[in-house]
Amino acid sequence: MTDSQTIRAAAVQIAPDLTSRAGTMEKVLNAVAEAAGKGVQLLVFPETFVPWYPYFSFVLPPVLSGREHLRLYDQAVTVPGAETEAMAAAARRHGMVIVLGINERDHGSLYNAQLIFDADGTLKLKRRKLTPTFHERMIWGQGDGAGLKVVDTAAGRVGALACWEHYNPLARYALMAQHEEIHVAQFPGSLVGPIFAEQIEVTIRHHALESGCFVVNATGWLTEEQIASVTPDTGLQNALRGGCMTAIIGPEGRHVVPPLTEGEGILVADLDLGLITKRKRMMDSVGHYARPELMHLVLDARPAQPLHLNAPLSRPTEAGSLFDGERNEPAAGFADGIVDQRTAILRRAAV
């Protein structure tokens, strides 16, 4: 990327189809086509938009949420799958970087996942929300450090976090230290009330200012009919209104265009990447303003896996086997390899 490059970015504020994954995907693909008509090069959708954010978990007690939870399992996205293939094709067709929030199903668990597709259709990043918030912990598993990664795309260096991950300063710093140029933020929207929108605005403006990057944030939207379908309790329905702050923020911490806080729409802005250097000339949080000899972040970027297989040693006697058939012991040089591997494992454990 060059300092003088301009990127046209957009954030979608949109209502999902709360009845089917296919219905929500149709809305996604229609929005992509509409954005393409506006010359958009980077497009961002809300948090876990496909098939929908689990709004039910915010207003229903756990003992009553089983049916809706299972329905979410049934409609969730697998990666790879038909939905990721459709998004890759759309990104490739329109030459657009697309960031989509999904409920990812991985066997018996659901995860809050963010997918970044490059303009050639490549899935550059799949990451999972590190720690689901409050009611979300009944719905989703936890992510790991492997997803705290900034990726090079046709629109620049892009990093992503979901919702209250922005309240984890070390998670944000991990992306800042990888020199993200465009930070993608995703929130559910239509939740908590106006105070949520205010908190979102404070959070994304601060990150843009501290990181010296652009922030493109998308929040979801629920219609009155959809709110009533989630809960018939008029008192609880108030908890499913407000909280929308679809916005695009520049490196100086200011809105590039006025935010979208009501209804559906696509917010579009041209991002002048030269403003990043202008901001960082004064204050580069991970460069000349940092003191890494005093304070630095250590990130475990290994994927978290429940099973690590160490292959057992078999004792075949044919030529070229790992064991010497005549002496029934490891072939020459193989034992040294085992020692080297074990030493490396012990050293990593000590660190």
From TrEMBL:
Gene3D superfamilies in alphabetical order: Carbon-nitrogen hydrolase
UniProt domain CN hydrolase: residue ranges: 7-273
Gene Ontology terms, MF aspect: nitrilase activity
InterPro entries the UniProt entry points to: C-N_Hydrolase (IPR003010), C-N_Hydrolase_sf (IPR036526), Nitrilase (IPR023919), Nitrilase/CN_hydratase_CS (IPR000132), Nitrilases_CHs (IPR044149)
CDD domains listed in its UniProt record: nitrilases_CHs (cd07564)
Cross-referenced SUPFAM superfamilies: Carbon-nitrogen hydrolase
Family classification: Belongs to the carbon-nitrogen hydrolase superfamily. Nitrilase family.
Protein name in UniProt: Aliphatic nitrilase
Organism: Ancylobacter defluvii
Source taxonomy: Bacteria, Pseudomonadati, Pseudomonadota, Alphaproteobacteria, Hyphomicrobiales
